[in-house]
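User: Quick sanity check before I run a bigger batch. Here is a single chain. Can you write out its predicted 3D structure?
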Amino acid sequence: MLHYSHMKLRTIDEHIVHFFRKISIPTARIALFVVFFWFGILKLIGLSPASGLVHALFDQTIHFMPFNTFYILFSLLECVIGILCLIPGAERILMPLLLFHMGTTFLPLFFLRDVVWQAPFVPTLEGQYIIKNLVIIAAAIGLVSHLHPLKKN
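Assistant: Done. Predicted structure follows.
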């Protein structure tokens, strides 16, 4: 009896693991698309709750273009990243754009410390919003990890 239940448990486990392995990439693609495209569109139409944070960071760092121009370009970048997440084979274009974007989103942790930290190692809600981007980076790495290396010429 014990042997049979162990075998049955192992079979169930194999089915569960296989199921999640099968859906992991499509799920990551859709989740990344939703986050990037949705947040990009919210910025584009002027409804993003992050606009104040973006503007404050802009004032601290970028001085070579008007904020409105930057904000539209940043919004469009997020939308493009979202769309690229849905396209198998676009990961080599997606990843540099995503890492660039993520790099900019981490800047408030250093430039706007009073906004993102309540105390050392105690983030505000804005700080938590930024730090959770580590999960986005992990999901994107998961997508890229399933690529086949380019063939040598």
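The helical segments are 2-44, 51-61, 67-85, 91-106, 108-111, 113-116, 125-131, 133-144.

User: Great, the batch can go ahead then.
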